[in-house]
Model the fold of this input.
Amino acid sequence: MGKIYTALGLMSGTSMDGVDASIIETDGNREYSTKLNKYFEYGHELQQKLINIRAKIFNADHLKSYFKEIKDLEREITLFHANAVNEILANFKIEVDFLGFHGHTIFHDSKKKITKQLGDGKLLSQLTKKIVVYDFRQNDLKNGGQGAPLAPIFHNAMVNKFLKKELNEHYSINILNIGGISNITETVKWEDLYRPNALNTIRACDIAPGNCLIDEWVRKKSKNKFDNDGGLANVGKTDDLIFNQALENFNVGPPYKESLDINDFDISFVKGLSLEDGASTLTDFTAAQIAKALVYSGGSSGSSIWLVCGGGRKNKYLMRSITNQGTEHLKTKDFKHQKTDKNKSYNTAIENFKKIALLPVEKYGIDGDFVESQAFAYLAIRSFLKLPISFPYTTGCKKPTTGGVIVKNF
Done:
């Protein structure tokens, strides 16, 4: 075990509701421990500004067109993060070596290698008197990657810490993160991590929308910010015609090679539905896309453990629907193109999928609300140590690549 550092990670996700903050101690490798998790909610005005700017930016030219508005909002977002950091430092008296500052993504186009996260690292360093690591995606993009997902290396550390027994029993242990976008990580034993040509190396990809469509619909049709526990979807009725047309018209993978942005999706296909029926239809659509990816990633083999983190794990209707939609997908003609043991019947595959447990990470003592904020604390340390934060089978970069800009402005 190497020297232990302390980092405070800051994550503002696509739900645009606030900032998750976590302090961890880590050697930047397999050892880490959590010291603090705390959430800071945005005020209505700041959240609305984020929603509005997101709605305006659909291509790189818009970043130039709205430069002044973006710059002003970036300062406001940075000030909010600085206030959160200073409150934590004042109240909890924990000595922090680094801040891992993700910022707030307002645009991401992996094909054109352009990404924009709101967050001024120099200003945050000045206001907090701390070394800040930020702009984590650019180096990966320069090295042929897609800039996302970046949390998988932390997912791997998390599984190696909390599920050692299961890893030794040769299960496939996977993370399903349902944030604004859904992504998966196939984890490996730590000693296999740097074997890029091995079949069992760490793999990850974006797979589907997560909460983004449901949240946007609920915000537009009500005063609520999200569908609490999936209650609206549970009351509503999915419009089968619209649902099936959406599945035909929009298809993510397989194979899953492109990172996704919430602007890759829209809710126009449910615009004529009631609040509840729209929520139900969008949730089933989201579940179908997620389930298809789980099947493709071995979910019908019966030998996988799936740990679920992100806000979507709290949507009870969504979690049920993933299982239901997965069994329906296995009955379609598309299934013959999926990875499966040819000696097993479709019925066996269906039964296996019904049995897979989508387990909230809390089962293993992990707080699923703060996985990503902990991840960016972890990535800050790896960046400082010049260790890789992305890998060929996570972002598509040419070789394991470090990243992040380190700034000390005080």
Notes: Residues 272 and 278 are 8 Å apart (CA to CA).
